[in-house]
Design goal:
It is built from 3 helices and 18 strands. It has helices spanning 4-13, 37-55, 245-251, and strands spanning 79-82, 89-94, 97-103, 111-121, 124-133, 142-150, 160-168, 176-181, 185-195, 197-219, 222-225, 235-238, 252-257, 267-277, 282-284, 290-295, 300-303, 319-322.
Length: 341
Amino acid sequence: YFDLRKISASQNNSENKSSVGSVSGLAKAEQPQILPNHCMKGYLFLVILICTSLTALGYDKTVNLLVNGDFSNGLDGWDTSVSSSSNYTKIWAENGVCYFKAGSSGSWSYYNCRISQTLKLKPGKYKCSFNYQGSFQEGGCCKIFRIITSEDEIIDTSDEYLINEVKEYSNKFNTEYTFTIYKELYVMFLLSVQDHYGTVVSISNFRLTRDIVFLKPEAKSCERVYGDDNPVFEVIYNGVVDGDETLLANNIHNDFKCSADKLSNVGEYPITLSCTGSVNGYEIKKCNSGILTVQKAVINVSCNDLEREYGDSNPVPTITYNGFKNGENIEVLSKCATYNI
């Protein structure tokens, strides 16, 4: 780093008034062109502005959150289920396409096959899409796409449906689905085919992307001893995408308020939090308070060693107290120490 003011001053004072300043350690041909201070400030501001805009983008909204959503690794990452008769139901993947076959031309019963994947998602807005090919014959049954949520990792059809798309015959699925969750949930993405004609249908490019993350900053609860200063309050960014913690810390200003001070009695005091600022991809839904717990201070009590001659009465020891806060003394004690020899 160069002190531009000093370099500029040395230029003005040099006899030859050269436009190139002298920088130790560089060959003549490598000496940098010294720009006026106002130009350098402009360049520095531009660099800082560009860096800030780049880092403030946060997570990548184009990342597919589904595991193996393009089926490039076959059916890895997907749970599959077929009817008991393997002669009439089949699921397989090849060349980035997942195929379903339920039933056959000679069967009269309906057969079912499905794939699903369950993820734990943060509160926010999401988009889900996939490409679908194929249609059922008239009189065939249906194909089903469901997005199901649960607070438990084990999800069944009794849980809440965010999307329950049932298409019969040649009716096609929508190309894109959007949904919103307001707390962290397990979310299942399920595609099922039921038929008895044995028609082959397929899906590809199954994608789930995150559009907006709902952020719920929370004042971190903490504790201190009576008479001490309040600690530096900290924030917990509930909902933050892994890797964006520093980004939020640099772009969101947190204002803490707490009524407790050094003279406050033992007890609990709310730490209120308000946040300003924004980061692309995040929406602050609510700021939650924390608790400051003021604990009792410890008083150390001791007495001095004593000695006496045989036959004399015991001397009275001197009792010493250490640890009082705020200039207080034994007068604040409800009970003083006693001794026994």
